[in-house]
Amino acid sequence: MLWIRAIAATAAALISLAASSLAQDWPNRSVRIVLPYAAGGASDVVGTIITENLNKRFNDRFLLDNQPGRGGLTGSVAVARAAPDGYTFLLSSLSTHVFSPLAARSYNPVTDFTNVAFIGGSPVVLAVHPSLNVHSLNELTAMLRRRREPWSFASYGVGTLGQVFGEYWARKEGFRLAHKRQDGPPTDDLIAGRIPIGAINATFALAPSRRGELILLAVSSARRLPELDGVPTFQELGHPDLVATHWYGLSAPKRLPAGITNRMSEAIAAVIDDPMVQKRFTTVGFELDKKSPAEFSAFVRAEVIKWAPVLRGSIEPKQPRKQPGRSGTPI
Fold it and tell me: Which listed residue, of 51, 80, 198, 246, carries a Cα 20 to 30 Å from 131's Cα?
């Protein structure tokens, strides 16, 4: 028995040594960060800032790879199926790790990924066209309650935080909103007055509000944003359940070696601590935060539990699509 234990201990030591060596040598070629959406959105802003700063630390090894399709599922499934060698990551988010898998059940966001590092998030801003002539959340709520027909509202699409948030807020307050699909950015229809109300990403609400094209009534962050200091939070207006952000993180295929996981997690933490990075994110209404890999995985699980009841009836469930080699088992 002693020799068996000795062999096992030696094997474990060799495996640990090999993993440590792998982490030290990594990366020795290009590393892809998959963005599962088309270029030009909020994920591009986050991905670009993170990639630029990782390249400063790793000799220009990182590149962005847009793989849009099926509401983020195409790129997410591709990463889940990739080799766990540290050369493929996903810019994960509330959409890829909560909303999409709850709707389509194509993968499990906890067990099918190594959730490496949390980055932070951009809250939802409730915006209205100036023609409504309302300047507070209470005024808008009272107006909507008086209407017999639902008023249309805009977001960045079905299954996004803005759409789910808007539906939840309307049901909670006892009125109806009709979500409208848009061919372009929702800010276009809002600014033009074609759609009077929007639950939109704070990143894209800043500029039109400064130009007087939109009135911002409330923001879903936990505290007021420096760039939107005059806009109250839903929480301070008496809605603590309406604290939410469209968050982002970095995930990889499951069974990513611990050495690479920790090295990437530490690198993202260093990027977040950079004052210049903080300034860039702050100016676009983004709240930075840090979580360890274990904390990030626990956070994803908690987010699924939080949003699952809200999504029932908010988005039209898709038929489960069996993915080869994937159980698709929901959490």
Answer: 246
